[in-house]
Amino acid sequence: MAKANMQKTKTPMTELDPAYRATCFEEVAGGYTLEEAVNEAQRCIHCKNHPCVDGCPVGVPIPSFLKELGEGNVGAAYAIVKDANALPAICGRVCPQESQCEGKCTRGRNGEPVGIGRLERFVADWALANPEEAAAAQQAYAEQTGADVAADDFDYTGKKVAIVGSGPAGLTCAGELAKRGVQVRVFEALHEVGGVLVYGIPEFRLPKALVKQEVSAIEGMGVEFEPNAVVGKLYDVEELMGEMGYDAVFVGTGAGLPSYLGIEGEALNGVCVANELLTRVNLMKGYLFPEYDTPVYAGKHCVVVGGGNVAMDAARTAKRLGADVTIVYRRGRDEMPARAEEIHHAEEEGIHFQLLTNPVRAFGNDEGWITGLECVRMELGEPDASGRRRPVAVEGSEFTIDIDMLVISVGSRTNPLIAQTTPGLESTKWNTLVTDEETGATSVPGVFAGGDVSTGAATVILAMGAGKRAAAGILGYLRK
Questions:
Q1: Cα dist from 437 to 169, 442, 466, 468, whole Å
Q2: pTM score
């Protein structure tokens, strides 16, 4: 084993200059070189209890892949990661590692944790650039660890499973089932496969060509995709399991319905939700107008309301479209749910922050366009149900921000379509589907669900973990 590198800080990763990147949609982070990746991997001290693995929702054997990478065996490192994670190039870029694997890293007790996400991205990018070597490494690893597959000696030939939704939960479930020989078809409502990965995350954080490559790898396993297929309209779940002959169905439709502020003036022109802005820019290539026929309005003075990752994505997108952008959030910096890295990047790019501030009314002109946003100062009171201190309005602190664009990013909800069109499918008052935490099983035999559709809006990697657990649940159901 390579000698541990006891450097207390992560090996730096190159990034585009903030002044330049705020004007374009090129990927911000440059990734590691081989030398940098090996150096960072050698920071792992291979502690006895491997807490990092406990922090990974899809169970990547992190110490094993870091050991191989630290010795320069990139192919072997990739094979270990890919066996557990269907979308490593994506997870390496967008997962909140600081609150998951890296958050539990022993090295983080005295310095910075090992850059596990950066290293996952490195081996995945290497595989995309060296597909033949990567395939050979995967084959070698499969032969080495064949006992796991052999333990499940059931013949799944002829078994058919329908996946509803091609986001991270659906793609992960599809890949896991395909490994066992199950026939899988993924039904996607939009015209492109990838769910939130293609419509919700900006190009500068997650290049869409990379998503296509990851999807192609799953397609290469025999998974079929049917876009423009709204299950609940074009087909319903009963049809899928009846005349269409599917033995089981997995619902991974995410949480795509936006929430609103409920304030006066929300219907003015120049007001939109973050989902609309990001979908126009990411999925419909609005940032390339007029090359793509998708107009996008970002205004000159834009306010984004919210403090999560989606708010950061919307703000940074509006900045790249030419607006001067301010983020308004009702709590303080420490309470913002967005990743620290995304907040830092937004600040570097010149985005302003109005914290402990809450909008109460929007103003417009005679033509119906927004011209101002009345806000009130807030202070933090006692903790609420989420554990964060509840914001309370400061009496008499109202003030107005002059704007011509308002983007609302205060969460999203689950579409009730599947629940409404599937008799016996139990859901909550928030339209989320009720599922077994271990298997993803719903109240309807043979129907499974996972990701945001059952938990509410969460992260890519948590959705993938749910998809992986549901795949195991489905395999158990098929065996019975």
A1: 14, 10, 8, 12
A2: 0.93
